[in-house]
């Protein structure tokens, strides 16, 4: 059995939390984002697959549920601690080595732009051991290769339990290719993230 299930703080010293979700992700993200404490010192970056051409209102959707400021990521914008960023629709969101975002309209990955893999693979190079990647519910294999890269470079990986996810294809693909440090259902994940302020001081 993969590592699981007790509630425990995330690793200390996190500077980035990157979250990927697809089918079923709107509800799952609401649970995860609500759990983030105001004391969170990491930047949080979210890729949620949306239909092409669909306007993103994600910051507004989650504003009342999250204690942290939320906004859509902008090209060349430096990541700030304690802010939640959403990938804009129809753009890949990358993290540059200098800690700034860049946007691109390169070809979709697994039919998706933004791609979770693109975010995770670029962020892993910039943040390495100070990064936590989270894969939630979804219906493709996007995120699996990126999660493997995060782990290869020393970052941490949490994956939603595929059997408890609205759509288990994406978390199952991530586990098959990359494995995970922890496999959690949403209540366990939320309870662990709520300890962020505690974990950073240990």
From TrEMBL:
Entry's Gene Ontology molecular function annotations: phosphorelay response regulator activity; protein-glutamate methylesterase activity
Enzyme class of the recorded protein, top EC level: hydrolase
Alphabetical list of InterPro entries matching this protein: CheB_C (IPR035909), Sig_transdc_resp-reg_Me-estase (IPR000673)
Domain CheB-type methylesterase, first and last residues per copy: 10-193
GO CC, alphabetical: cytoplasm
Pfam families, per the entry: CheB_methylest
A single GO BP: chemotaxis
Stated name of the protein: protein-glutamate methylesterase
Keyword Hydrolase assigned: yes
EC id: 3.1.1.61
Active-site residues (renumbered): 22, 49, 142
Catalytic activity: [protein]-L-glutamate 5-O-methyl ester + H2O = L-glutamyl-[protein] + methanol + H(+)
Keywords: Chemotaxis, Hydrolase
């Amino acid at each position: 059995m993969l590592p699981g299930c007790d509630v425990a703080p995330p690793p200390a010293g996190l500077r980035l939390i990157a979250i990927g979700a697809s089918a079923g992700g709107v509800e799952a993200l609401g649970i995860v984002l609500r759990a983030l404490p105001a004391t969170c010192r990491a930047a949080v970056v979210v890729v949620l697959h949306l239909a092409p051409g669909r306007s993103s209102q994600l910051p507004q959707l989650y504003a009342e549920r999250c204690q942290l400021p939320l906004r859509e990521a902008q090209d060349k914008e430096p990541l700030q601690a304690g802010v939640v960023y959403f990938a804009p629709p129809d753009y890949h969101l990358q993290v540059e080595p200098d800690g700034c975002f860049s946007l691109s309209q390169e070809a979709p990955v697994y039919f998706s732009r933004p791609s979770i893999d693109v975010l995770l693979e670029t962020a892993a190079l910039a943040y390495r051991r100070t990064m936590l990647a989270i894969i939630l519910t979804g219906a493709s294999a996007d995120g699996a290769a990126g999660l493997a890269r995060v782990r290869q470079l020393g970052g941490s990986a949490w994956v939603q339990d595929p059997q408890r996810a609205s759509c288990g294809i994406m978390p199952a693909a991530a586990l098959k290719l990359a494995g995970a440090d922890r496999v959690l259902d949403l209540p366990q994940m939320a309870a662990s993230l709520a300890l962020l302020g505690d974990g950073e001081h240990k």
